[in-house]
Design goal:
The structure is a homodimer of 350-residue chains.
Chain A lengths: L2 H8 L3 H8 L7 H14 L5 H8 L4 E6 L6 H15 L3 E6 L4 H13 L4 E5 L5 H9 L4 E4 L8 E7 H14 L5 E5 L5 H16 L7 E3 L4 H13 L6 E4 L2 H13 L9 E6 L12 E4 L2 H17 L9 E5 L1 E3 L27
Helix pairs in contact in A: 1-2, 1-3, 2-3, 5-12, 8-9, 10-11
Chain A binds a DNA duplex (30 and 30 nucleotides) through helix 2 and helix 4.
DNA sequence: GGGTGAAGAGAAAACGTTTTCCACCCCGGT
DNA sequence: ACCGGGGTGGAAAACGTTTTCTCTTCACCC
């Protein structure tokens, strides 16, 4: 059942059918109605491949994430998909699992399917792959790691804002030994978070010397806490590069019978949905996944709809902010920390 | 840059280029090499739409899940994708969010993109939508809810096995008042789980009267626990229709200062990755997401590769099994429960 | 040495649309 | 009455492949 079948039955040409279906205004309403009637009767669906072939636009956006399995991403994928269906787009999702091979195959698949644009939500990309895409003039959206080139839009994350809030919150609770569990050091976003931690600490005259590299997964958090506790003077608060890590440290704390927040304060990063449901509920730095997805999609759409390639590189910013829950409290007394003057150690924050 | 460009530069016909690229054995190795050289030099990628148009096969599988945001699914999506790239397939992911409208648009999108098959991992599907797909002879894979028709493969989940183990585990720990928090009652898989709970209880002579309908989300679990505790004689153990629900009840228990497992035992269902990292680690019924994804994908592939439509409807079974962690313990003494004879109430299971 | 067959490569048709170009009709203006 | 022009719809080209069909070449056998 193709467009010709419809044309035959509606006694018009295929051109008219095409026009009717695409709501071209010049077609006679009478005819259009006749066409739609047949279309509905037969349950005709246009063949997207043929459409794409001739129009040159596939109406597919690529979405490259580093790990769909990390709860940070499904939320993004969901809103991205919502926006896609609203705009009659399809999304081609690939998850690189931090594997350069996979990254390459992702890009290849995107190009083969002739995507109209790609949002890259992962740690950068090898230049040679990038060139493949740029060569084909595929609009690209990066978060943070995009190169400084025309036609590439970058979404800058303001990590410092939220992380500074977190550090100052901890300092206000009399913590002085504040540790940081970073993400893998080949991940640019992880590096940026760590840097934000360092400057936040330095700003208020605290040493940023308690840093261990995790892996943005739960076991990384568990191992890191173990290591911190082996120290002669362990931290009383730990800030994590993402929420998964924080969940790991809370889990290890439970095993070690360290009470949170009484004995240890922990703060996460991302504010995944689950953070509200951990035990105790996790204080964390929010980086809105919905917002991020919306900005990325809209940027892609803009890029596609403008016919002339954009000259000015557009920049968007997404800020981060601390959300208080119940995993942080006053620093416990003793252990080289400044003595609290009033209030119960470990009491819940108001 | 199209196939003709390659043909011209390699001084062969487009037919030969096509054959070379597709590794048709009859092409002279000499020529093939010449073609590949040009292909690599120019970075040529065949146009998938054109390919699909003429060959009639899109090399796309549809994957319909109910909620990508539920941690049960990303795992599935990931292995599905892995298998897809291995087999040179693409996947078209849609998340219905339990909305019939979305379901319809999902199906429409699948058909428009001419998918070679669809795996439906969600609560059934309206018959009329189903007919659209069947009419077009799209191979379909369902889990549990598929109609009994030729050409449709069903993956049956053996819920009873795991749930019976869970119930008997609880009974062995002297629990007699065992509650169940079900999923939404319009969800067939939720109904099946509840039924399995009932028969498991009846089998061992326990009443299955403590059942509340949740929503397979965390807040549903929280509300349900609250409701149970309003009872004059609350349950000492609760079995949940999925892990999210269990996480909700553990969270609410934390708020109410009910200790798990000392005061209350809880068991989940699914064994999502996170279950290992809850506090305490969650005893749950495992339903392997990887296994499920593998079976589904393989079934689709089989269906596509056989040219004759399958006459026998194929059935696959996936079983479930209890995995013990630390959210269950001996029933607390008193409160109308059978008195434990030895061992400390609430002691951890070995 | 001529006929037969196989192997390899090219020409061209086909896939299902969109879009360009052209023909037609009808209207109003001169 | 004739011409110009705007609006409408059809014929056909185009998109980039795969695949069928045909042609050439060459080896082999009688």
């Amino acid at each position: 059942m193709d467009i010709r079948e419809i044309a035959r039955r509606a006694k018009v040409s295929t051109a008219t059918v095409s026009r009717a279906i695409n709501h071209v205004p010049t077609v006679d309403p009478q005819l259009a109605k006749r066409v739609w009637k047949v279309v509905d009767e037969l349950g005709y669906y246009p063949n997207t491949q043929a459409r794409a072939l001739v129009s040159g636009r596939s109406r597919i956006f690529g979405l490259i994430v580093s790990e769909i399995t990390n709860p940070f991403f499904p939320e993004i994928v969901q809103t991205f998909e919502n926006l896609a269906v609203e705009n009659n787009y399809e999304i081609l999702l690939t998850s690189t699992v931090h594997d350069p091979k996979r990254m390459e195959s992702s890009v290849r698949r995107m190009i083969e399917r002739r995507v109209d644009g790609v949002a890259i939500l992962t740690f950068g990309m090898e230049d040679t792959l990038l060139d493949h895409l740029r060569f084909r003039k595929v609009p690209l959206v990066f978060v943070d790691v995009g190169p400084n080139a025309p036609g590439i839009v970058n979404i800058r994350i303001n990590y410092l804002n939220g992380i500074r809030q977190a550090v100052q919150h901890l300092a206000a609770l009399r913590h002085t030994r504040i540790a940081f569990i970073s993400g893998p050091s080949n991940l640019k976003s992880a590096i940026a978070r760590r840097a934000a931690f360092k400057t936040s600490m330095t700003e208020i005259g605290l040493p940023a010397d308690l840093i261990i590299e995790g892996n943005h997964q739960m076991d990384g958090g568990m191992k890191a806490l173990l290591e911190f506790n082996g120290l002669s003077n362990p931290p009383t608060a730990v800030l994590c590069s993402n929420d998964m890590t924080a969940i790991g440290v809370m889990r290890e704390a439970y095993d070690q019978d360290i009470k949170i927040p009484n004995d240890l304060s922990v703060i996460g990063f991302d504010d995944i949905r689950l953070a509200e449901f951990t035990i105790p509920p996790l204080t964390t730095v929010q980086m809105s996944q919905m917002e991020l997805a919306k900005i990325a999609f809209q940027a892609l759409l803009n890029e596609v709809q403008r016919e002339s390639p954009s000259l000015e590189r557009s920049e968007h910013e997404l800020t981060t902010t601390l959300v208080l829950r119940r995993s942080t409290g006053l620093a416990p007394p003793g252990r080289h920390t400044a003595k609290p003057r009033k209030g119960t150690a470990g009491s819940r924050i108001p």
